[in-house]
Design a protein that fits this description.
12 helices, about 300 residues, binds 2-acetamido-2-deoxy-beta-D-glucopyranose, about 45% helix, signal, membrane, alpha/beta, single chain, Rossmann fold, globular, kinesin binding, two-stranded antiparallel sheet, five-stranded parallel β-sheet
Amino acid sequence: MKPFTYTTIYLILLISPIGGIDFWKTILNFFRKRCDDRTSFNYKGLDAELKNKVFGQHLASAVVLRAVSVFMHDKNPPKPLVLSFHGGSGTGKNHIAKIIAQNLFSKGEHSKQVHWFIGDYHFNTGTNIEACKVQLQQWIRGNVSACPHSMFIFDEMDKMNPELIDSIRPSLDHYDNIDGVSYRHAIFLFIGNAGASAINQVTLNFWKEGEIREEIQLSSQDLENEISKEVFNNKKSGLWHSSLINKNVVDFFVPFLPLEFRHVRLCALEEMRALALPPKQKIAEQAAREMPYFPREERVFSVKGCKGSEPE
Ligand SMILES: *[C@@H]1O[C@H](CO)[C@@H](O)[C@H](O)[C@H]1NC(C)=O
């Protein structure tokens, strides 16, 4: 659509008295419905940030870069992009979600097209699950019909009622449209701790065998299957007990590996840089040394990942 010119505005002013209040309402709605933000996928930006600002997650970074760029370059994707992030706390799941948003929308994570739902905070289903379901469906529908490239992030999946997640399944699947709304350009991210013990075990096995961590693949020791099994069998893991897995609506299970001392140190340095402080190696090292590590004997992986590694 061509940008509005003064002539257009003049014309609107000229004819406005004819339509009266209804006319202005229509104009107002027209502007409200438009996406407030520019969707412009920045492949180079995404690639660079995943390389420079994410530490120890070669697997997640590669899967995300590939999945998002293939999806964004597809003019006619058969279904929305659905990614599920798994791993312990502080391993960078939310961090990567924000990086995706930053490279999709000019206003990044603060774009009105990014919707961040937190497990039990947004949907305290104790009160009325049916009302929550209807609300969530309406939100997704309303936002996608206004802006097809909307992004929905479900954080702390482990605390979310599976019934609630089940209720949005149709919007994640291969449908041309549902009641006239197409969800095929939307992105859904699920974030949770489920699957972390399988991921940690595989990473520890690699470490014990003296193998290079960066060589861990989705197929290593059946990693992807182990995650989905753990996630599926865990009755507490929110969505996973739902029918999402059976229906294959999740495009990728993305594992976040437990972080080692060297990664925590890099996080601390990056944090200083982000705060515009001069990066000090010694302080970063000390911050990393003060973190707790597991397993108890070997003490290889940071219990809280990079969380809390920020220098005071
Ligand atoms: C879009 O989602 C937000 C929640 O993130 C909700 O408050 C809003 O009402 C939704 N918009 C529409 C048009 O449904």
